[in-house]
Amino acid sequence: MALNMKTLTQAFAKASAVIEKTVSTTVQEVTGPRPLQDFELLDQVGSGGPGLAWRIYTARPRDGAPSAPYPVVSVWVLDKRALAEARARAGLSKAAEDAFLDLVRADAARLVRLRHPGVLHVVQALDETKAAMAMATEPVFASVSNALGCLDNVGKVPKELKGMEMGLLEIKHGLLQVAETLDFLHNNAHLAHRAISPETVFITSSGSWKLGGFGFALSVDQATGGLTSSQQFHYSDYDVEDTALPLQPLLNYTAPELVRSGDSKVGSACDMFSFGCLAYHLIARRPLLDCHNNVKMYMNALTYLTSEAFSNIPSDLVSDLQKMLSMDAVSRPSAMAFTGSSFFRDDTRLRALRFLDHLLERDNMQKTEFLKALSDMWKDFDSRVLRYKVLPPLCAELRNMVMQPMILPMVLTIAESQDKADFELSTLPALVPVFTSASGETLLLLVKHADLIINKATQEHLISHILPMLVRAYDDNDPRLQEEVLRRTVPLSRQLDIKLLKQAILPRVHGLALKTTVAAVRVNALRCLGDLVPSLDKEGILGILETVKRCTAVDHSAPTLMCTLGVANAIYKQCGVEFAAEYVIPLIFPLLTAHQLNVQQFAKYMLFVKDVTRLKRSVV
């Protein structure tokens, strides 16, 4: 019987595909969902989503993984096994668990489809195994729920969240961003979110407030056309703690038309009620409603809401907030109308932050005028606003060479309050291109702040980016640059190994001492050589003595002679009397006749010579 090669080839291909799929599935079950394979988890930063079920981690791409648009991302992990155990402890059915996982899948799918600056950006879509679900997004700082002090499902609490308090300006800016996103959802995407709460609003690492938690979202047309029983929410008349598997939004933030069982038609106005509850909680620092998922408590609290409840709310927000919290959906303002509230409109500092949001879109003249005003205003900003609202747009604008001289001082001043890890993550990447291209006044400014940069940078960045920049300053012809870089040489030398110090730095300091025609540069170079003595071996110290000898051969000015004495004292302390007597005294002794020394300076020279010769005699 003849062998049908075509059939055999097809059979092999089919078998190969089955084997490949089986191997892939087996590998996935061992290594976890795809985001866990492509990204290395670092620290947990927070939790979020319904019931704060997602654990959110900072992560970086693994070697060989697909490139990501961010140097670090947030990987969201949901442990299915832990969820199953929590469900069993709560006495809930497997069907409830499956329904909750379907909500999570719906949320992740919606996030991928929605493209807007106010919606969390998905870097890698949801993937799951039998044990876990995971997805990757732009870097997230925390959920608003975490920022308000609810740290459920957070293992080791990050220090940034411990005792964290947001100022009113930061809250205003965040609320305004969420309002603009809601306007997009309602009028462009034609969606009702239906679950706006602290669990579904997230603060990114750059300080933006963005929406997630779209598991309960419906199209506005579908919502206003009438909801099916499965799309309606069914809250209990008694206290229920369903945080293990929340199959409906938090009642404390849910609009009454979504709670009343008789209402099957709802619109986007339900989001404005939830948004009002969120705004109230953020500003008053307590929830407006605290009803433990009990509908009777909820309805009573809403029905008997008094003006006293708004005593902690700014007067220019009270009227708008009361309209947002109206039982009558028609009376609530739209998201766009809310952005026009005097609460936002009359705040000069908020307008400054809004300008920063769109800084890249402005021309250089507008930016210049704004930055002049900002330099007088930013002392009124608290540290969180400076770090998360002001610094990111300024760092982005550093690419504009024309604006660098105005922006760089602000960036470096804010950076002073950053810890090393935060500086390396958020500020240093924006500075690296500036290090490479800086010249003139920009280079001078960077060198003046070199101590800050050196202390906050890693060894790798120090050698790769900061050292080349400082080398350019040594080699520049501007005496101001030469003086400044000489003053920063000693802090730099403490971070470098001796070999690199002798190769890259020491020859340039010698060169400035010998070749300059500017007295201040020579003086600073000689001081620098004296300060470097403790870092050097005998060969390096003898090189310093040779340079000092050549300098004093042509320059007998008092500053140069006194710097020479300083170098001599440093060598004496480092190397001892034998070395000083053999190598230093022959250099110092002829200088005693220099007529440029005054009486006090001559006395200091004589004291040094006497000390060395006296100790030398006692040793002998």
From TrEMBL:
One Pfam family, short name: Pkinase
SUPFAM superfamilies (UniProt xref): ARM repeat, Protein kinase-like (PK-like)
Segments forming domain Protein kinase: 39-344
Protein name: Protein kinase domain-containing protein
Species: Urochloa decumbens
Source organism phylogeny: Eukaryota, Viridiplantae, Streptophyta, Embryophyta, Tracheophyta
